[in-house]
Automatic annotation (TrEMBL), chain A:
Domain of life according to the entry: Bacteria
Keywords, sorted A to Z: Metal-binding, Pyruvate
Gene3D superfamilies (UniProt xref): 3.40.50.970
All copies of domain 4Fe-4S ferredoxin-type, residue ranges: 613-644
SUPFAM superfamilies: Thiamin diphosphate-binding fold (THDP-binding) (SSF52518)
Gene Ontology MF term list: catalytic activity; metal ion binding; thiamine pyrophosphate binding
Keyword Secreted listed: no
Family matches, as InterPro entries: 4Fe4S_Fe-S-bd, HACL1-like, THDP-binding, TPP_enzyme_TPP-bd
GO BP field: small molecule metabolic process
Alphabetical list of Pfam families matching this protein: TPP_enzyme_C
Sequence intervals crossing the membrane: none
Protein name in UniProt: Indolepyruvate ferredoxin oxidoreductase
UniProt lineage: Bacteria, Pseudomonadati, Pseudomonadota, Alphaproteobacteria, Hyphomicrobiales
Automatic annotation (TrEMBL), chain B:
All residue ranges annotated as the Pyruvate/ketoisovalerate oxidoreductase catalytic domain in the record: 26-213
Entries under Pfam families matching the protein: DUF6537, POR
Origin species: Pseudaminobacter soli (ex Li et al. 2025)
Positions in coiled-coil regions: none
InterPro entries: DUF6537 (IPR046667), IorB_Oxidoreductase (IPR052198), Pyrv/ketoisovalerate_OxRed_cat (IPR019752), Pyrv_flavodox_OxRed_cen (IPR002869)
Lineage of origin: Bacteria, Pseudomonadati, Pseudomonadota, Alphaproteobacteria, Hyphomicrobiales
Gene Ontology molecular functions: oxidoreductase activity, acting on the aldehyde or oxo group of donors
Domain of life (superkingdom): Bacteria
Occurrences of domain DUF6537 (ranges): 260-475
Protein name listed in UniProt: Uncharacterized protein
Keywords, in A-Z order: Oxidoreductase
Length: 717, 524
């Protein structure tokens, strides 16, 4: 990994039997993989599982010692296909990605994997990005489990349970010859907790052994008639085996009393929230004691029908706590009860909400109305529940809606993508608004103020394909924007190759910031860093030329706003046919600063002459119209109120977080804004020559300044 | 493992965890603060759990970190929640003032239990700072809401305090948290947590200590008053320079006391901009306006018209031209300010590079009026010259050659009054004041609004042109608003709308509303 070190986290992976692991959920899972004797790990980085990938990428020593192969897959599809190694060989493999985005990409491989089944334990760790703060569409991974007959684990969100789920998952996979998905919600991935570690295990069967002793079995290949047989095998053998394993190993858990008129069935991941809701209703305590029977589904697919029926038998009503929609579990519950003629009333999404986060407050309300209908006695002694309503209804608090601004994520200070969109905005001032097809990645922040550029995104690397219908004669051409991450994930073929083949006339703007920046700055094929374990420096330009792009412009400094504007103008107006590809390249500033800042400070400390650049605004020249901000949005470029009685509006101001990227100056030059910006070059450890020059210049300038000041008439006071 | 459930109803424990929510933006160190709090609790033998959704925080977005902590009991692990419940939060830490507002809007701050620890500094959101006018949210609203929401509030500028100690806001917030004594750990335990973190320990401890002490001081001025007050000193008794003394006399003799400081500010600006004669010219124009004001019943209205003219006429007469920019950029005071603003140490050298983009328009504007007009009327020549001139120039003000050039340009100020630009500006000023003067007899309030509309003219080049066109659009409504009871308030609304966005969409919307009410579009 390029600019961040995970050396400290790697130490956690070395913990042995009985030692206490303290840290994040996703790291606990990483450690659990090694404890389970995994043979290989792959995946595609993304929130919330990036840490798993990043730490393993830095853990070469640990992995080599254990004989574990790790790779950063080109895409989730590549990662899923990697599990193919477990089809014919008893090797445990694990892959990971962000779901459901990644599961969508991977589903072709998953379908084939699930069809033939596996011999070695195959675990798919899904970082579930659902609910508040999510950056992807709100869908459930559950559907993938159902359609392909893969098993889905959803453990209680504490480190011990999640680690156990990894170990159980491998065994379940092997017992039922089926790949197993382990779903971890975003907050659980980032939860800080602890568990008791075990020693890491070497894989019992290695990839090397497999390679040297190849096996084949035509019955595992997805070709008829085998594929039809697979379907039968899924239903008649693998499914029953899985159910038996889950039941006999007690993977689902019961809490609270055995008897009761009512009960709660819940996804494991919902456990802590449900317990807090019950505690607030006076029906549970913080140590896990509950007055209501709970049936916790650490495995949400398949259900163990008999277990479900047993739980419901003798109860007047149960409520299913199932986050996300549609209500697959609730439907199954109804089927199970109906088939057995059990009259227990089923509640769920009728009392909770159809979609969205199941917050504690929402569950308090839902459970309260459930109990009101079926066990009102239980609510007899309920303490007052926390209620923010009175304060939220206060006019003074309501007034906050007027002043509290939205604060979505945006481009970082000094981001090299900012000048690209500034250039595009300036182009629009001349050539008018264009259809802009967006992609996944940091550059999608361009849809927000102040740029307000770009429309829909169809998926990673698909911006070009998203504009493919617009291949008709018109006075304007579409612009597709994609990042280098998206380009290598899918864009080269699906967007660029597709455009070349279909003689598409549009513009494809590829933002090359040297990393997979949005997912944490991982290296990719075209990264400029020398990475000893990966092949980098494979340029995007060569790749697009390779698939037949003829019109290609490379901009090697995106901060040159005028050049970006002019190149775009050229691409939009050139008579040349076929896709017009612009590669706009500058290093991701977040990662650059991680590397450069320590080097700079080191050099200054060592007494070396160094120049730091940053920008400033002359507040008496600035008139406070903020045109510069509308072409920037940089966090370090803000406004400040002045004491000048003749100025109504706040003036622009740049704070010390400025990294001197140059965007402010270039924009004010290209857009002919005001001359209030200046760049300050601060010379650290100036040389003797620097000092002499500065002194002489100072003498000359000082003389002129004093002379003019003496002629200036001003009030004495 | 399958837990063996019992038939006996258990006795429920009454313990509740202490709950802490941190509202921060990316880059503010919310994660570090969260880790410190967890370390603090764990070192104290408590069980602590933290979580967050940090994906968006990486890039300046607002996010929440959430922590629960509780002492262990009979080795039974507690079941802690992964998200805050409105009305159930003990401590809210907000790393910025509007984020404190957000916490209140989400119901996380309630008067029964929440201690709110917030930094009063502002970090403006894009939607606030991109407005052509002042789009910043009013912090007084947050102050008001805090009064009704929080059980207790500790609010001060933790950002500046942290910066002054070479650290970041999270360290100061941790100090304020220790000082608040809402967590059952001694100060030394907090400091141990910082040391265990291992990064920037000394600076963090300094900021921590400063905030610890500051949080114990009685609450100071409400943060709403933190914006700098406008500098309007009273008139000096006299000045050694006879010309300046006469200016003082003119102000003192001609105007009621409340208007005098603004006139003094105007005179000072124009003196700085041009010379004594120009300041007198300014007073001449104000005087004319003041006479109309008095005739229009200004005495009863505190001479609001005169005050408004005093302010906006000074701004208008000190229009921004290349001469002015060169003058401001070459001053010794400016060199000093740059060093101070960017924190240059005495053993460092700094050079500034100005980003200038002169166009033929500006060049023609600085020429004698007749010559400038002739050039403008010769489009081919104008275009050819523009091609030579119109490009970005990086001016290195600290070097001899560039400085001398700017210095000489600033020196051309003595020819300013003969330039084309000056002629145009004065003509515009006269038309504007003339219109206001015509309105005042019939509608005093509307006349005051006409004067205030001058605020719309600002910026350079395209922005300036856009400002002018908005000004024209708004002023164009005066004829049909005149005589209406709500004429002045309409003009005021139009002016505010014009400052909401660059393209003037809000203004156009407001104009359409007027059309729909009054119907007579022709009047515009």
């Amino acid at each position: 990994m390029a600019e961040r070190s995970f050396a400290r986290e790697v130490e956690d992976l070395k913990l042995g039997e009985g030692e206490i692991f303290r840290g994040e959920g996703i790291l606990a899972i990483t450690k659990a993989l090694l404890q389970s004797g995994v043979g290989y790990v792959g995946g595609y980085q993304g929130s919330p599982i990036s840490h798993l990938m990043d730490v393993l990428a830095d853990a070469k020593g640990v992995l080599d010692d254990l004989g574990v192969h790790f790779e950063s897959s080109a895409s989730e599809a590549a990662a899923a296909a990697m599990l193919s190694a477990s089809v014919m060989y008893p090797i445990r493999g694990a892959v990971t990605w962000k779901s459901t985005a990644g599961t969508n990409v991977a589903s072709d491989a998953l379908t084939n994997l699930a069809s033939g089944g596996v011999m070695g334990g195959s675990l798919i760790i899904l970082g579930e990005d659902f609910g508040e703060g999510s950056s992807i569409p709100q869908e459930r991974s559950h559907a993938f489990a159902m359609k392909s007959q893969m098993w889905l684990l959803d453990p209680r969100p504490n480190l011990t349970s999640m680690v156990k789920a990894v170990e159980d998952g491998f065994e379940l996979s092997e017992a039922s010859n089926t790949p197993v998905m382990l779903q971890i919600r975003i907050r659980a991935c980032h939860v800080h907790g602890h568990f008791v570690a075990k020693d890491n295990k070497r894989p019992t069967f290695t990839l090397k052994e497999a390679l040297e002793n190849p096996r084949r079995d035509v019955n595992r290949v997805v070709l008829p008639p085998a594929s039809l047989f697979h379907d039968k095998e899924k239903l008649e053998q693998r499914w029953p085996k899985a159910v038996e394993f889950i039941r006999s190993r007690g993977l689902n858990e019961h809490f609270g009393p055995t008897d009761g008129d009512v009960g709660i069935i819940l996804q494991g991941g919902m456990y802590n929230g449900v317990m807090r809701a019950l505690q607030l209703l006076g029906l549970a305590d913080v140590y896990g004691n509950s007055l209501l029977p709970l049936y916790v589904l650490n495995v949400t697919y398949p259900l163990v029908d008999d277990e479900v029926a047993d739980f419901c038998l003798g109860k007047k009503a149960v409520i299913m706590v199932e986050e996300g929609h549609p209500e697959y579990l609730e439907q199954s519950l109804n089927t199970i009860l109906r088939r057995r003629d059990i009259a227990t009333k089923v509640h769920g999404k009728d009392l909770l909400s159809l979609g969205g986060d199941y917050t504690t407050a929402l569950m308090v309300d839902g459970l309260r109305s459930f109990l009101k209908s079926h066990a009102p006695r239980l609510l007899g002694n309920q303490p007052p529940t926390p209620d923010p309503k009175p304060v939220l209804e206060n006019a003074k608090v309501k007034a906050l809606t007027e002043v509290v601004p939205p604060r979505p994520a945006g481009f970082c200070t000094g981001c090299p993508e900012r000048p690209i969109f500034a250039g595009m905005k300036l182009m629009e001032k001349e050539l008018g608004q264009h259809h802009v097809s967006g992609d996944i990645g940091c550059h999608i922040f361009s849809v927000l103020p102040p740029f307000n550029i770009g429309g829909n995104t169809m998926g990673y690397g698909l911006s070009g394909a998203g504009a493919s219908a617009f291949n008709v004669k018109a006075d304007k051409r579409p612009i597709a924007v994609m990042g280098d991450g998206g380009f290598w994930h899918n864009g080269l073929v699906s967007s660029v190759g597709n455009a070349v083949f279909n003689k598409h006339d549009g513009v494809i703007l590829i933002v090359d910031n040297h990393y997979s920046a949005a997912t944490g700055g991982q290296d990719i094929l075209s990264s400029r860093a020398q990475n000893p374990t990966r092949s980098t420096n494979n340029t995007i330009a060569e790749a697009v030329k390779g698939v037949g792009v003829k019109w290609l412009r490379q901009i090697d400094r995106t901060y040159d706003v005028a050049k970006v504007r002019d190149t775009l103008k050229e691409a939009l107006t050139t008579p040349e046919e076929g896709p017009k590809v612009i590669i706009a390249s500058s290093e991701c500033m977040l990662n650059k600063q991680r590397r450069v800042k320590p080097q700079f400070n080191q050099a200054v400390k060592g007494g070396k002459r160094m120049v730091r650049e940053r920008f400033g605004v002359d507040e008496d020249v600035c008139t406070g119209d903020h045109a510069c901000i509308r072409l920037s949005g940089c966090p370090s470029l803000s406004v400040k109120h002045t004491d000048d009685p003749l100025k109504d509006d706040p003036v622009a101001a740049i704070d010390n977080s400025c990294v001197g990227c140059g965007n402010c100056g270039e924009v004010s030059e290209a857009a002919v804004l005001c001359p209030s910006f200046y760049r300050a070059d601060i010379i650290y450890n100036p040389t003797r020559l620097d000092r002499i020059a500065a002194t002489l210049r100072g003498l000359f300038i000082g003389f002129l300044q004093r002379r003019r000041a003496s002629r200036q008439i001003a009030f004495a006071a | 493992m399958l837990q063996k459930p019992s038939n006996m109803a258990p006795r429920l424990a009454t313990e509740k965890p202490i709950t802490v929510a941190i509202l921060a933006m990316g880059g503010q160190g919310g994660g570090v603060l969260s880790d410190w709090i967890v370390d603090l609790a764990e070192a104290g033998g408590w069980v602590a759990q933290s979580t967050s959704v940090p994906g968006v925080a990486q890039r300046t977005g607002a996010t929440i970190y959430y922590i629960e902590m509780l002492p262990p009991k009979d080795a039974k692990p507690p079941v802690l929640s992964l998200m805050p419940t409105p009305g159930d939060v003990d401590v809210v830490l907000a790393a910025e003032f509007m984020e404190a507002g957000r916490a209140m809007l989400r119901g996380l701050v309630t008067p029964e239990r929440t201690t709110l620890i917030a930094s009063s500094h502002r970090s403006y959101a894009v939607t606030e700072k991109e407005k052509p006018g002042d789009g910043t949210g009013d912090p007084a609203v947050v102050v008001e809401a805090t009064g009704v929401s929080a059980k207790r509030a500790i609010v001060f500028d933790m950002q500046s305090l942290a910066e002054a100690n070479g650290s970041v806001v999270s360290a100061a917030m941790f100090g304020a948290l220790a000082s608040a004594e809402v967590l059952p750990f001694p100060r030394s335990a907090f400091e141990t947590a910082i040391r265990a973190g291992g990064k920037g320990v000394e600076a963090s401890l300094r900021a921590f200590a400063a905030a610890y002490d500051r949080a114990r001081e009685p609450a100071g001025k409400a943060p709403s008053q933190q914006l700098p007050a406008k500098l309007l000193p009273p008139l000096p008794a006299s000045d050694p320079h006879p010309g300046l003394n006469r200016l003082l006399d003119r102000i003192r003799a001609g105007y009621p006391q409340p208007v005098q400081p603004m006139l003094f500010a105007g005179v000072k600006r124009l003196l700085d901009y041009q010379d004594v004669a120009y300041a007198n010219e300014y007073l001449d124009k104000v005087e004319a306006a003041h006479r109309l004001d008095a005739a229009g019943g200004g005495a009863r209205r505190g001479f609001a018209f005169t005050a408004e003219v005093a302010k906006y006429l000074a701004v208008a007469m000190a229009y921004d031209d290349v001469i002015r920019v060169a003058d401001l950029k070459t001053r010794a005071s400016r060199f000093e300010r740059v060093r101070k603003e960017i924190g240059v140490k005495s053993d460092q050298i700094v050079y500034t590079t100005e980003y200038m983009h002169p166009r033929m328009e500006e060049v023609a504007g600085t020429m004698p009026a007749a010559l400038g007009r002739w050039l403008e009327d010769s489009p081919r020549l104008f275009g050819t010259l523009d091609k030579m001139i119109n490009k970005g120039r990086r001016v290195r003000t600290g070097t001899v050659g560039w400085y001398l050039m700017l210095h000489m340009l600033a020196g051309t100020k003595r020819f300013r009054r003969r330039t084309l630009r000056h002629a145009r500006e004065i003509e515009h000023i006269d038309r504007w004041l003339d219109l206001a003067g015509k309105v005042i007899a019939a509608d005093y309030e509307l006349a005051v609004e006409v004067v205030s509309c001058r605020r719309l003219v600002k910026g350079y080049s395209d922005t300036h042109a856009r400002g002018h066109s908005k000004f024209d659009k708004v002023i164009g409504q005066v004829s049909r608003l005149q005589g209406r009871a709500d004429g002045a308030s309409w003009l005021n609304r139009l002016r505010r709308a014009a400052l909401l966005d660059e393209e003037g969409k809000a203004l156009d919307g407001a104009l359409q509303t007027i059309d729909s009410i009054y119907g007579d579009k022709a009047a515009a």
